[in-house]
Amino acid sequence: MYLVSNQGVTLLTLATSIPSMKPPECNPRKGGHCIEASGQQLALLYTALYILALGGGGIKSNVSGFGSDQFDSSDPKENKSMIYFFNRFYFCISLGSLFAVTVLVYLQDNVGRAWGYGISAGTMVLGVAVLIGGTTLYRFKKPQGSPLTIIWRVLLLAWRKRKLTYPSDPGFLNAYHNTKVPHTHMLRCLDKAAILDDSAAANEDSKSPWIVSTVTEVEEVKMVLKLIPIWSTCILFWTVYSQMNTFTIEQATFMNRKVGNFAIPAGSLSVFLFISILLFTSINERVTVRIARKITHNTQGITSLQRVGIGLLLSIVGMVASALVEKRRREHAIHHNFNISAFWLVPQFFIVGAGEAFAYVGQLEFFIREAPEGMKSMSTGLFLSTLSMGYFVSSLLVSLVQKATKGRWLKSNLNKGKLDLFYWLLAVLGVINFLIFIAFSMKHQYKVQNLSSIEDSAEELGNWKDLTLDNKEKKLEADEKVEA
């Protein structure tokens, strides 16, 4: 998928460097007639974008799951290291984003877009070389078939057998005693997929997965369905985040961006967003998690859902700050004919960036840890879909607000609109979404980790070593009484 993405970026480089593939420059603010791109030019552009999207989707849905596969969750030391992996993984992603909005944006604005895309293509080739170079060090897990097939099969069988009565004892369910996942009573209707009815038992191929599911398969499907409520409440965070790349950048174009004689590109102001992400990702790893471990005596320190909750709260605060700044900016522009400094946007970048440091890592950790072992790539894709859905909801909200307000809130000229009211709307929706998230989080039961029993055994062994001979004998007698 790295090679596929590289081909997409290479095509973008060609689309912006070959003269015949570039439409004439157009600046609506300076007036003049703009010539539309030709069919060939659009064909090359869209081909490059779709190939890049294909490669990016493959990379993003697999790289985090593959990274977590390098750790053995049954080993206390490796499980502890995996907690830091998610932080460091996103830290590195944010470093790349920081490079993009500073160096690449500058090159694209002042030298040429082809340079920005060309450098990106070159770094991806370097990334492929590093990936291949470490092949002998990786842990590979054998694929166990498509998780979508298992989900579809369990749901189909549960529907077909919906009229069957539940067995008197769950031990009668297919492969109950060989299950790899503890049986639960949640979504009990799906248990019917594991019932071996009389007609199926008479079939020679009665153990076929299309005749009856195993308890393991049913419980894995339950795990996936348990993620959906939390998934739905994570979407709005990325709707808020999308404003940092759209309306906030548009705000910057109406503000004073000069530092001495140098005018900061509006897109480069996102640097404060990524600085905030890098800062809080580091603080979370080195300070927050360690303090939380001492207080809660939990290996994770802060649970994944607690991280997500903090991220959602910060997104609400970020929208409040955005609304206040926009109101101030518009008042100065209209009543005083004065453009305030673009650095007034730093607080909202900083707050939402801090929220992303919590929300991204928390969501990624939640969807990977809570998913079945064989469905990590799919759960990562489920997590990434919250990002795409967030941007989709943002576009939908803009359309609805435009229609409801008859275009009074959102205008291309922000001085004639009321963008601050749109930010207040997002803040109110964020509060409602946060309350729903709290309700879902309180009902969610974390997947049983194998580590817990190991840690308990290790702790018990440590306590045993500290006992004197007399105390050991007393402990044995006490244990025997408890067993009796």
UniProtKB/TrEMBL annotation:
GO terms for cellular component: membrane. It holds the Pfam family PTR2. Coiled coil: none annotated. It is a multi-pass membrane protein. The keyword Cell membrane does not apply. It is found in: Membrane. SUPFAM superfamilies: MFS general substrate transporter. The chain crosses the membrane at residues 89-108, 114-138, 223-242, 262-283, 304-325, 345-368, 380-401, 421-440. InterPro entries: MFS_trans_sf (IPR036259), POT_fam (IPR000109). One of its GO terms (molecular function) is transmembrane transporter activity. It comes from the Eukaryota. The keyword Transmembrane applies. Keywords: Membrane, Transmembrane, Transmembrane helix. Belongs to the major facilitator superfamily. Phosphate:H(+) symporter (TC 2.A.1.9) family. This is Uncharacterized protein.
